[in-house]
Amino acid sequence: MAEHYSSFSRGGTGWLLQRITAAFLIVVLAFHFFQLHFVNHAADVTFAGTQARMENVGYFLTMVLFLITGTFHGVNGVYNALVNQGLEGTQKKVVLAVLSLAGIALIAQGIWVAVAMAGWT
Amino acid sequence: MSQSYNRGLIEDFGRWKEFSAGMWAWIFHKFTGWMLIGYLFTHIAVLSTAIGAAAGDPAAIQQETDVYTTTIQGLESLFIIRVLEVGLLAVAVFHILNGLRLLMVDLGVGLSAQDKSFYASLVLTGIITIASVPTFMDGVTI
Questions:
Q1: Which is the most buried residue in A70, A88, A98, B68, by most CB within 10 A?
Q2: Total domain count for chain A?
């Protein structure tokens, strides 16, 4: 039997960060789903209700951290999946650059949205 | 010393009939991962209506006629959106459960039962998804 089955190279920073963000995401994603589907129903969401939640600094920071870790985990996962498909050389560098830019843009847009929701614009 | 294991080219989907439980788990994990990152971009795009709502008339926010509230409530009034939300839950739950399974595989824990833990992930995903349907479909009709 082989001892290593992961898509990520063993001992790499990418592997470790993927696991750390995964652990954080499990907890916060579960909270997010319960908060917006079971405690408050998604169909009843209003801007005033969203603002009341986002004005709380702890909730705001949790959501921003949720966005950053979620984006990193997703983009890092996609990058490694593509590398697994056999991406090499220039293609690999271009894909890394495009994914990094998309990730940074998503985080920037998401933080702008979060600030607007909290009423701090 | 690590041993090599020739799994063949799993990326060659034409071989799907030969795939074992672990290979299906790998494919499902990639597939659900792609869905989730796609959803994250869509989610932030929809929530971006908050920027317009915050810059707009405060009276509209009070009356719940701002672009953020009407966009979200409009989407939530659609049956297909509720069905897609149940699908999203199923995708997320499977990705979480199989992710925990992958962590165990990475750590070398319970390797001999990795096929059973894949089946357990599928069954548990099904149970959690079905149990959530009444909440997700509350107040919407076709």
A1: B68
A2: 1
Per-residue pLDDT of chain A (121 residues; tens, 9 = 90+): 455 556 666 667 888 899 999 999 999 999 998 899 889 999 999 999 999 999 999 999 999 999 999 999 999 999 998 988 888 899 999 999 999 999 999 999 999 999 999 999 8
Distance (Å, rounded) from C-alpha B70 to C-alpha B62? 12
Number of DSSP helices (H) and strands (E) in chain B, helices first = 6, 0
pLDDT tens digits for B98-109?
A: 999 988 888 888
Classify B86 as helix, strand or coil.
helix
Nearest to A62 by CA among A91, A22, A29, A88: A29
Query: Contact at 8 Å (CB) between B98 and B28?
Result: yes
Task: Say yes or no: A98 contacts chain B, CB-CB below 8 A.
Answer: no
CB A97 within 8 A of CB A58: no
- pTM given for the model: 0.89
| CATH code: domain of residue A95 | 1.20.1300
Mark yes or no for CB contact A74/B36 under 8 Å. yes
How far does B127 lie from chain A, in Å, by closest CA? 16
A84 lies in some domain: yes
Amino acid identity at A110: G
Cα nearest neighbour of A10 on chain B: B106
Domains of chain B as residue ranges with CATH: 20-136 (1.20.1300.10)
Sequence-distant (6+) residues with CB within 8 A of B99 are A22, A26, B29
CB B101 within 8 A of CB B21: no
- For residues B141 and B79, is the Cβ–Cβ distance under 8 A? yes
Other beta carbons within 10 angstroms of residue A39's beta carbon come to 9
